[in-house]
Amino acid sequence: WKIELRIMDKHHIVTCTAPVNIAVIKYWGKRNEDLILPINSSLSVTLHQDQLKTTTTVATSKSFEQDQIWLNGKEEDITHPRLQACLREIQRLARKRRKDGSSGLDSAGLPHKVHICSVNNFPTAAGLASSAAGFACLVFSLARVYGVEGELSAIARQGSGSACRSMYGGFVQWIMGQKSDGKDSIAQQVAPETHWPELRILVLVASAERKPIGSTSGMQTSVETSCLLKHRADVVVPGRMEEMIQAVRNKDFPVFAELTMKDSNQFHATCLDTYPPIFYLNSVSQMVINLVHRYNSFYKETRAAYSFDAGPNAVIFTLAQHIPELVGVIQHFISFFPPESNGEDFFKIVLCYYYLLQVGPGPCFVEDSTQHLLSSDGLPLKTA
Fold first, then answer.
1. Cβ partners under 8 Å of residue 380, min gap 6
2. How confident is the model at residue 353 (pLDDT cuts 50, 70, 90)?
3. Which residue has the higher pLDDT, 54 or 336?
């Protein structure tokens, strides 16, 4: 029994981590809801995992009676269609690999039930790309436990569109693709995480609350009602993608920054053009936008850029040499508005926190077995 358990632990329990990514050319709108195929390409920056990451443990065992999943300490419905799409595709590839005779012991767990435990170390569903990190981590972990290799971003995409970009580190583009089956809708690395070491990212958390309108329903309404969204996808984004890729490769911060801010603004303009309109930004978000423009105007050069996903939390890009002053400016901005005289939003930003990050790597395999989130009997550990 002890020998059998060790074999299961070695080959059929795996823990991995995956990063958050921040899109600088935004994805908003699908041409196929089931396969999660986008109406435009997008480009993102992968954030370092030292502060923001998802950790996932996957285990298979013949002793498990049913498939189960726990997210942030709570058991969730493993029959969710997007979860099942990822699990089904990884298991299909594992069966194919075994049939082709190229698999080892990793696929021996195929007939067995699977237990999954996943934890984010940052607010879930508050516009910090938690689903991207979560599904990237899930797919990467499942691939490791079943011995599946090769291109995995198209599988992660079926869980959450932007998850495909979290399958790589550095600067990543999600190519929208043209095929109806989605096989050409994949992520590709534009530049590795070592490419631009001076780039820094500040994540300002003005609200850790769940956003009122989720991305899935929001973008579906935008596709159905926004004329601006179609113009953006067909006319604006193709050229902007080329410019952004060139700016990244040249490490041209002023161009990178301007494109980032313009694209963020246009994304939120499409949300306003949606009927009924969608409001992801709050008054704090608008103040941060004004602050960044005033900061750049003061120096008569672009030293900082903001970007907002589907939520009120600001992501600010800058270079390392500007961080001490920029952080000071932001802290002064916060203290300038007493919470009692400026309403609930300013009270939140006084209590907010920020992350200071660099560009980081893609998903990582955790070799230390003490970091598993599941015990040897397949149940979540209390520390999870």
1. 70, 73, 117, 373, 374
2. low
3. 54
